[in-house]
């Protein structure tokens, strides 16, 4: 098969894929892989100095370190890629409006901050005494179509402005407690950034703004808004077509 015929073949496959697709109001047909490793962090007392105005003010920040090195955009995230999602037959997952389901692989976790010196800890080092704080993230604003997908039950969350999501307070024996030992209360939750967006179109910009709030009785002050930017990336078939086109162009120039 020559290069021209091969490109036509790939194009036909692409058309066939779009003509037989999974239509869903929820991302039905999506099978979630294991959660990622990168986390967005929540803490208090950002300046690390006791007795100042921010002692009881919450904050949100991206991870300082990633698997491949330091985060160059800390305390923010670089623009996060949203990948098109497909069912187990390779068909794009669409909702009733014809929008495709996009999802970010990383980051998908939220975690309370637990530095060695304890300056950002939310508090709670007694396993038998549950702290009075209860941390939620709140969606302040977002581009139309944005939502989050809870990995534990594939439930759609934070689909509307003002929606909140509990960050799952729990005791973890391996967490540093800020006093040179281990064992601390914290929050840890895996929930993916997602969007319904135009099918098969790369470069769509999406943004979402969050705050951290305390729904308990500790009295932590709501954090400043934290905005995360996203962009849709091409589907695999589109990448194949682009690559094949580039190879053909190189061949012709020779």
Written description of the protein model:
- The protein has one domain (25-235).
- 14% of the residues lie in helices and 36% in strands.
- It is built from two helices and 17 strands.
- The chain has helices spanning 3-19, 236-253, and strands at 22-23, 39-44, 58-62, 65-66, 69-70, 80-84, 93-94, 100-103, 109-112, 135-142, 146-150, 155-157, 164-166, 169-176, 182-197, 205-214, 226-232.
- Strands 2, 3, 6, 8, 9, 10, 11, 12, 13, 14, 15, 16 and 17 form a 13-stranded mixed β-sheet that branches. A two-stranded parallel ribbon has the order 1-7. The protein has a two-stranded antiparallel sheet with strand order 4-5.
- Strand 4 (65-66) and strand 5 (69-70) form a beta hairpin.
- The protein is elongated, with a radius of gyration of 22 Å.
- The two termini are 19 Å apart.
- The relative contact order is 0.21.
- Residues 3-23 and 238-248 have low confidence and may be disordered.
Task: Give a brief rundown of this model.
The chain is 14% helix and 36% strand.
What separation lies between the terminal Cα atoms?
19 Å
Q: How many helices in DSSP terms?
A: 2
What radius of gyration results from the CA coordinates?
22 Å
Q: Which regions contain 5 or more consecutive residues with pLDDT less than 50? A: 3-23, 238-248
Structural domain count: 1
Helix content: 10-25%
Question: In percent, how much strand structure appears in the residues?
Answer: 35-45%
Shape: elongated
- Class by alpha and beta content: mainly beta
The counted number of beta strands is 17
